[in-house]
Design brief:
The protein is an all-alpha fold. 74% of the residues lie in helices and 0% in strands.
């Protein structure tokens, strides 16, 4: 068997799924086929995440064992500390951990609130409490509440931010390729990592929420999509345009943000909370799969959604215990407890 045969085979399968779902999505948008639009949208986003996870895993295998500095990465994989200092940087890192935990926990809570909202629409009870809880969760988790009043502004602002980041990165890359002897120093990138980790899920979940809501228009689940995170019922919204823009923005944002937060590896300093890039890559990708599961799987398949979410969270727990993605042992314990509590 050829080396990495499984990785290459899976990659080609995901690429074929991406191409096929793109063609089907374009055709279904032109013919206005709501169910097909929803299925092709889910297939595209899920295939994109699976493809990126597969290639990242192959990259880490090759980097750890086949590169000239493989010994450096093998040492990093075995380094661990048992305590940390209560510095400003570490307190900020702990704050990010708490916010990430609340963000992941919000998905099953929102699913429960959406079920309550559907019952309320059938005349069971008033849904003011459900809407208030949704608003509070949006504030705590930093997730955007895509209501019809601010949806257009929020979406285009985020698209503009992602576009500016793409332009800046392209300019730096082109300049460094043109002047390899006098490249632009990128030492400042490491100082942006905590901020990137903080906004990673809010930015991408907003785009997935937009895609989910737009793809639900015309289906049975659209009634539930008009509350909480998923609101896009503004009459001025052009569904095909906004859906394509949301998918393109998500593709660019996901690739850039995931690459950015998982590409920085350095020798850890004792007393500092720092993570292995491979661990960050796996947990970020699994977090995105969890959001895709809750936001893009139809309500009629809620049992499948629950099973998938259970598998994803159990995988995160097992990986966190076995791989110890943080160099500080205490942080790994806390994260394992947090993932278990989500179960």
């Amino acid at each position: 068997m050829k080396p990495y045969y499984t990785h290459h085979t899976l990659s080609w399968l995901f690429i074929l799924a991406l191409v096929a779902s793109t063609i089907v999505l374009i055709v279904s948008l032109s013919l206005n086929l709501p169910q097909v639009i929803r299925i092709s949208t889910f297939t595209f986003i899920a295939s994109l995440n699976a493809l990126f996870m597969t290639r990242q895993h192959l990259y880490y295998i090759r980097r750890t064992y086949l590169t000239y500095d493989a010994e450096h990465y093998l040492v990093l994989d075995t380094t661990e500390f048992y305590d940390f200092e209560w510095s400003v940087f570490n307190i900020f890192q702990i704050g990010i951990l708490v916010i990430e935990f609340l963000q992941l926990l919000s998905f099953p809570i929102r699913d429960l609130l959406d079920s309550i909202h559907l019952k309320n629409q059938q005349g069971v009870a008033d849904d003011n409490k459900s809407d208030t809880a949704n608003f509070i969760i949006s504030i705590i988790t930093m997730f955007a509440n895509l209501n019809s009043k601010f949806y257009i502004i929020q979406l285009w602002f985020l698209v503009a931010v992602i576009g500016c980041v793409v332009l800046v990165m392209s300019a730096i890359h082109c300049y460094n390729s043109w002047r390899p002897h006098k490249p632009i120093a990128l030492f400042w990138v490491k100082y942006l990592l905590p901020l990137a980790n903080l906004v990673y899920l809010p930015m991408l979940v907003m785009l997935i929420g937009s895609t989910s809501c737009l793809s639900k228009i015309g289906t049975e689940d659209y009634r539930g999509a008009s509350s909480g995170l998923l609101r896009c019922s503004d009459p001025s919204v052009n569904k095909p345009l906004y859906l394509i823009v949301s998918i393109i923005a998500y593709t660019a944002g996901y690739v850039i943000l995931t690459t950015f937060v998982t590409s920085f590896d350095r020798i850890p300093i004792k007393g500092e909370i720092h993570y292995k890039s491979q661990g960050v890559a796996f947990l970020k990708n699994m977090s995105m799969l969890l959001s895709i599961d809750f936001l893009l799987v139809a309500n009629s398949y809620s049992h499948i959604r629950s099973i998938l979410s259970l598998i994803i969270v159990i995988s995160m727990v097992c990986f966190n215990i076995s791989s110890q993605p943080c160099f500080v042992v205490q942080i790994n314990y806390w994260r394992s407890y947090g993932f278990c509590s989500i179960l």
